[in-house]
Fold this protein.
Amino acid sequence: MSNRDTIVFRVDGNSTIGMGHVMRCLSLADELRNRDYHIFFVVSDNYVTGLIQKRGYDIYSLNSCWSDYSDKVDELINFVIEKKASWLITDSYFAKESYFKSVSGFQLAWITENHPDLTGIKVDLFINYNIYMNNYQGTYPLKNYCLGSKYALLRKEFKGVSSKHGENILILTGGSDSLNIATLIANALVKNVGYTNKIIVVSSSLNPNLKKLMSLSEQITVLIDVEDMADIMMNTRVAISAGGSTLYELAACGVPTITYSFTDNQIENVTTFSKMDIMPYAGDFRLDKDAVLERIVNHANRYCGDNKIRLNVSDKMKNVCDGFGASRVADIIYTWDKEKRV
């Protein structure tokens, strides 16, 4: 594969939609770069420019509306044509049918939580790595899909990691945490969990509530813009996390995890983990935060006090995700392109 072969990612991240879309695209981009692709990122604004450039990627801003992917789609099309890209990979809840019709002249991949039979959208490669897609039976040829947790788009640090079962309690809310959930959980754990080891909150410089987090008790440590998340997770006894890609990172590390939700798109993911008896679901913070906090405390006390329970659930989690998902997707794209050149 020549290093002139180019792939364009169309994705956004901000304090409203979080950073998960960008992070999983970066994971796939890293694997594609290892296969000699030249990668460009196209974004709506400059919110994530620094993050993407720090990973060594070229970036182009449309200065468009991030919640409307039809906005300035003609400029995106011209950019893809100019770069002679072999793929346009899109990751957004705001990429609608009209957007995909506009870019239908390119080879398309879509990273999404949608169910492919319900979208009415035709793409060349459909990627949904959530656990609820593990046993999906679709109406389209499965060669067009990367479905289920074996395709989770994680960073290379999560490939084949070994469980260490550390001592910390870890709180994860995503990059922005506009609802200040981390503070609520941390305070509840300090007051009500008998296990007294350190509580770690992982957050982002994009979090508007950082001052509140930093003013919490000495028992709570706040880490900002962590780069080696696997190392943090490997020193964790139990984690509390929202739905999203973080759950697959925790699964790859075998960290017993309690989940919660605060957006609609998280619910199917966390409830599936719960139904499979892998990660207990504490509920939706938008509905009854006090009830959610009470369930989190109860589950945390149970996990922290019983090594047998933790080891059992850790084994289940490792079977969900091995950390090689981004490599698998990159191999499919690379092989597809290679076969077309024969």
About this structure: The CA atoms of residues 13 and 288 lie 27 Å apart. The longest helix spans residues 325-341. The longest strand covers residues 85-91. The radius of gyration is 20 Å.
